[in-house]
Design brief:
The complex is a heterotrimer of chains A (about 350), B (about 525) and C (about 250). Chain A has 14 helices and 4 strands. With about 350 residues, chain A is mainly α. The chains are: A mainly alpha (about 350), B mainly alpha (about 525), C alpha/beta (about 250).
């Protein structure tokens, strides 16, 4: 018995190592001279970088859903808030290079007749502050929503609907021009980050490696959490919440902790995503985005961490491939994926691999 | 004798036809004479009520009337009297003084105000209102006595009030304040506030009249808001009722519910297209109700038997799976019908607005939707309470195993219940096709709101769903004037979350052991 | 640790949709006492446990444990006062192993950070092994709880209760699904625990109640019908009427 389970554990470690080694390939192969048969295009690097951010988002959802049973349909909101925090920093970095050439105000504010920077934009000219906000704002929102919900024992589908309402409300709010976040156009036309112009190969590689590092770190943190007694308590809460209370644990505190941690991870993913893709707009808050991310996790195999990462890469690879020649079919396929995963693959790809291995 | 009668009619200004051709011409030509002649002619023409006088006087007022050295009159390159093209070289513009101008205003108003064209009369009333002159009073009194069109009467009353206020007689002024205050319109309020500066002695009366108008306006606005709230509430009720059955009664979370609503709207569109040009065309909408119910009910039954029943007891998986179904339905409709909106027209009997007492205007189609919402609610209640199916449904919900041992085919009841809830969603789609764009993502906007209604009202309680829907609708509309549409929605969502803090099971909570599971 | 908190219920009434689950129920359990509670279905036994553990708030009445007002505390706080509960239907964490179930129940700091930094000490491991032996599940320590038989689940939940080391144990139908031998073992175990701690046992099995050999409370329609030694209670005409008559 112990032999098999440790073997399985090693298999999983092997899978993790394989994924991370593969992820190092795109920037390395991209650095080869042009015309080299093994060289991959900038597009591949950009797309893979985007997927890494999605993988972090998937990881954060898995932590909350796969372990604690909190199915959030609003994680896209945390992702988007992190993205907006980074977007605000990038907007401030534009300085007077905007179309209107205003030294302080971003173009859209000049256009909308702002006289000065709104107070909540203060401090975003500093990169560390923006990064901090990318973590704290999603964390605080998750803290507030989670506290209200967990305290009154809102669980299961009720919680899912409330988180969906949360991201829906935020989407409506961010579409408004007078929110001071660029309305439905959001932020774009970024120039540079930390002094490096964003359209250079070195910036691309740097951002890619930052996302890579972030994925590694969030995976390590998540692994530490789920392998501690804390993780076993999360599973206990997932399966029999009230029983945990009768053992004297403060279930609200545990759920809140993991929900906030998860939201901060999603915020980090969003902050890394925005400079990679060069745009952030309220569409990122759309409920469809959040639920699509949930399907990555379900497809990969929830409650396994590595499954979430695998799911994010595989579903997005499928999406990129399919939309390149039949964009109309993608939503049909995605919808079918929801059905297939819930009915036939409850433990996802990882479950499939394990069954083969056993 | 004949001449006497003619003169009489002429003096009374009621006989335009009898105004002899040569007499008209003679009078008109005097418009080019001295100021005294002009004023006299203007007055006479005004009294004549002759439609031909109108363009002449208008030209004079606008400074477009010109006089030839021979005394003939020209408007541009045409004879002013006949309208025939004529040489205008050497013509000089006819000048007027203030006395003529005053006479003109009154004469023009008189002529327009008797015009058979209501639009012309409305313009005239507006012109008189702008002039704010007590001289127009007799004119206005006479016009008011004749006028029957409400909208024009409204303007005339306003002009009369303004004219009275402009008089020198205090009693007349007070009468003006009184009639303006009674009219209860925004414009009357403006007139009163304007008059306040010049009439310090009447300030008190004016303030009282303004306050009276404000009360009327507030009442009307509140009435209209309430109606809009009820209207939104009934839309929410329709969208949520199906959910109250599938989620509230069965406990099955169906995220494709919004898509069933959307399919109901598209069924309405198809029924309309199928009946176009036939004698049934005006009845397309009522006929679409059973059609939409059938289409979505059959789809619902298929969904329940084919997919959902494999996931009973796993609500989160059900949620994800049905979301996928919704996504596919939406995309399928988009591929078949295209992404653009489809036009579903309203039958004539649903168009237009209705005036309720207190001048609260309501649109007919919204009124019909409220009626429809209540009808569907009653239908659902009756189906659950009085039919065999309703009895079996309640039995299965309360105790599946015992129901099965009593010979109830629980699987069949599940399918029927789900079909019933889905069918209600389809009927909601018929109603929504009247007020919302029929597009593939019609349902997405309603799904979150519907869940909020069901959760807020109390899961498993139809009365709760009704009260929840109306409360949310009214609250939303009451908040909108202060916060805007988006923030009102956000505020309602936050409000529900806070409410759930106090009453986690909603307004109409089921208590006891049944509620624990 | 303060010794000798007593459980004190007075005039507890609980109503569900007009149905009185508990009707003016009063009950005192002295420190160290072992009390058996019996009664027909629907007599209010489980509801009484729910009130004591904070799952259900009474409409009226007093529920105290030592100095603490139980009606004002939630399940977590009550559990941390030292009241442990075994459910009628054994409830545990099926995805975790037997060992892990016991580890979670083990008396230790209950905070989030404590759970993150928790290391299984030698002492804790010994304690878990001890209980594993007591409940006869040493062999199955590494199996997931979900695959245990009903009887084993009963034992595991008793084991979790032991790990919690509570001052008051509420035990709901512990011997359902057990063999005679196991029933005897359970009775001996509960007798041994009592004295140091208070124990309230709800049970249908009169043989088992007799084996416990202590004071018995009979509930009927939400209130106490009779109270005393088992022999005396069995003679009580009202009890006979409820159990046999009508």
């Amino acid at each position: 018995m112990p032999g098999i389970s440790s073997l399985r554990f090693n298999l999983r470690l092997l899978l993790v190592a394989l994924i991370f080694v593969l992820l190092l390939l795109p920037p390395l192969l991209n650095a080869l001279p042009a015309g080299h048969p093994l060289r991959v295009s900038d597009f591949v690097v950009a797309v893979t970088g985007k997927w890494i951010c999605y993988a972090i988002l998937a990881l954060s959802i898995d932590l909350a859903w796969g372990y604690a049973g909190i199915l959030s349909l609003g994680h896209g909101a945390f992702f988007a808030l992190g993205g907006y925090a980074m977007g605000m920093h990038l907007m401030r970095n534009i300085g007077d290079r905007g179309v209107y050439g205003h030294p302080i105000l971003p173009d859209f504010m000049v256009f909308l007749g702002y006289k000065e920077l709104p107070w909540y934009w203060l401090g975003f000219e500093y990169f560390p502050f923006a990064m901090l906000m990318a973590l704290l704002v999603p964390g605080a929102l998750a803290g507030l929503v989670g506290w209200l919900a967990f305290r009154s024992r809102i669980t299961g589908v009720y919680l899912s609907i409330i988180t969906q309402a949360m991201t829906y409300a935020l989407m409506l709010a961010f579409f408004r021009n007078d929110m001071g976040f660029g309305g439905n156009n959001g932020f774009t036309d970024f120039k540079d980050l930390l002094g490096v112009p964003l359209n250079t190969p070195s910036a691309r590689t740097g951002l890619y490696l930052a996302a890579f590092g972030a994925l590694l770190i969030t995976l390590l943190i998540s692994a530490h959490v789920v392998q501690s007694k804390f993780g076993r308590l999360l599973i206990a809460i997932r399966d029999a919440e009230s029983r945990v209370r009768f053992l004297g644990y403060d279930v609200t505190a545990f759920k809140l902790f993991v929900f906030v941690l998860s939201a901060m991870m999603a915020g980090l993913a969003g902050a890394l995503y925005v400079p990679l893709v060069g745009i952030i707009n309220p569409g990122e808050f759309s409920p469809g985005n959040s639920i699509e991310a949930v399907v990555w996790v379900a497809f990969g195999g929830r409650g396994t961490l590595i499954g979430a990462i695998l799911g994010a890469f595989s579903v997005n690879a499928l999406k990129t491939w399919l939309t390149s020649f039949a964009p109309d079919l993608w939503l049909l396929v995605l919808g079918a994926l929801f059905i297939v995963v819930t009915l036939f693959l409850p433990r996802g790809l990882i479950g499939l691999i394990k069954r083969r291995g056993a | 004798m004949k001449r006497l009668i003619l003169t009489l009619l002429l003096v009374l200004g009621l006989a335009p036809i009898c105004f002899a051709q040569n007499e008209f011409n003679a009078t008109a030509l005097r418009l080019g004479g001295s100021f005294g002649e002009q004023a006299e002619a203007v007055e006479k023409l005004g009294l004549s009520g002759d439609p031909r006088a109108l363009p002449l006087l208008q030209a004079l007022a606008d400074g477009k009337l010109a006089r030839m050295p021979d005394g003939a009159l020209r408007i541009g390159d045409a004879d002013a009297l006949t309208g025939a093209p004529a040489d205008a070289t050497g013509a000089s513009p006819v000048r007027i003084n203030n006395r003529v101008r005053a006479a003109l205003r009154s004469a023009l108003g008189r002529l327009q105000i008797v015009s058979p064209d209501p639009a012309e009369r409305l313009r005239a009333a507006d012109g008189i209102l702008r002039s704010r002159s007590a001289q127009d009073l007799p004119l206005l009194d006479a016009a008011l006595a004749r006028e029957t069109v409400p909208r024009i009467r409204e303007r005339l009353v306003l002009a009369q009030g303004a004219a009275r206020l402009a008089s020198d007689d205090e009693a007349m002024k007070r009468a003006g304040i009184e009639s303006l205050g009674a009219s209860g319109s925004e414009a009357a309020r403006t007139v009163l506030l304007e008059a306040r500066t010049g009439n310090a002695g009447l300030a008190e009366a004016i303030d009282a009249a303004v306050a009276r108008i404000d009360r009327q306006l507030a009442f009307r606005r509140a009435g209209e808001l309430l109606f809009q709230g009820l209207s939104l509430g009934s839309v929410l009720l329709l969208a949520a009722l199906g959910l109250a059955v599938t989620f509230g009664v069965m406990g099955v979370i169906n995220m494709a519910h919004g898509e069933f609503v959307m399919l109901g709207a598209y069924t309405t569109f198809l029924v309309q297209e199928a009946l176009r040009g036939t004698f049934l065309a005006p009845w397309a909408l009522p006929l679409a109700v059973p059609a939409a119910f059938l289409v979505t009910a059959v789809l619902g039954a298929a969904l329940e038997r084919g997919l959902i029943r494999h996931l009973y007891g796993r609500p989160l998986e059900t949620l994800l799976m049905t979301f996928g179904v919704g996504m596919m339905l939406q995309q399928a409709v988009r591929l078949i019908f295209g992404a653009q909106n489809r036009e579903v027209s309203s039958p004539a009997w649903m168009q237009g607005t209705l005036m309720l007492p207190g001048e609260i205007s309501v649109t007919q189609n919204r009124l019909w939707i409220i009626v429809f919402g209540i009808a569907v609610l009653l239908l659902v209640m009756a189906a659950i309470r009085f039919t065999r199916f309703g009895l079996e449904m309640r039995a299965v919900v309360q105790n599946r195993r015992i129901a099965a041992t009593m010979g109830i085919r629980t699987g069949r009841v599940d399918a029927l219940t789900f079909a019933f809830g889905s069918g209600i969603a389809g009927m909601a789609g018929v109603a929504l096709s009247q007020i919302d764009n029929v597009s593939p993502n019609l349902g997405t906007g309603y799904i979150v709101d519907s869940f909020m209604v069901v959760v807020f009202g109390g899961v498993g309680s139809l009365a709760g769903t009704l009260i929840g829907a109306l409360t949310l609708g009214v609250f939303n509309k009451l908040l909108e004037p202060y916060t805007g549409v988006v923030l009102a929605k956000v505020a309602v969502l936050v409000g529900i979350m806070l409410f759930i803090q106090r009453r986690p099971k909603g307004l109409f909570a089921l208590k006891g052991r049944a509620a624990d599971q | 640790m303060k010794k000798g908190a007593s459980l004190y219920l007075d005039g507890i009434t609980v109503t569900f949709d007009g149905f009185r689950a508990l009707n003016n129920l009063s009950l005192i359990v002295e420190p160290g006492e072992l009390r058996a509670v019996i009664g027909p279905n629907g007599a209010g036994k489980t509801t009484m446990m729910d009130v004591i553990t904070g799952k259900t708030k009474p409409d009226s009445g007093t529920a105290r444990f030592g100095d603490h007002d139980l009606t004002r505390l939630d399940e977590t706080r009550i559990a941390n006062l030292g009241i442990g509960r075994k459910f009628q239907k054994p409830t545990m964490f099926d995805a975790l192993t037997v060992f892990e179930n016991l580890e979670l129940a083990l008396k230790a700091p209950r905070g989030t950070l404590a759970a993150l930094h928790w290391r299984l000490s030698g002492e804790a491991r010994e304690r878990i092994d001890e209980v594993l032996t007591e409940i006869g599940l040493t062999e199955r320590a590494k199996d997931r709880a979900g695959i245990l038989s009903h009887g084993q689940r009963q034992w595991l939940e008793i084991g979790m209760l032991l790990m919690q080391d509570p001052e008051l144990l509420l035990v709901d139908e512990p011997v359902a699904g057990m063999t005679d031998q196991e029933t005897e073992h359970t009775a001996a175990l509960l007798r041994r625990i009592a004295g140091k701690r208070s124990v309230v046992v709800v049970e249908h099995d009169l043989e088992f109640v007799r084996a416990l050999g202590r004071k018995v409370t009979v509930l009927h329609e939400g209130s106490v019908l009779s109270e005393g030694p088992i022999e005396q209670v069995q003679e009580d005409p009202r009890v006979i009427d409820v159990y046999l008559g009508r």
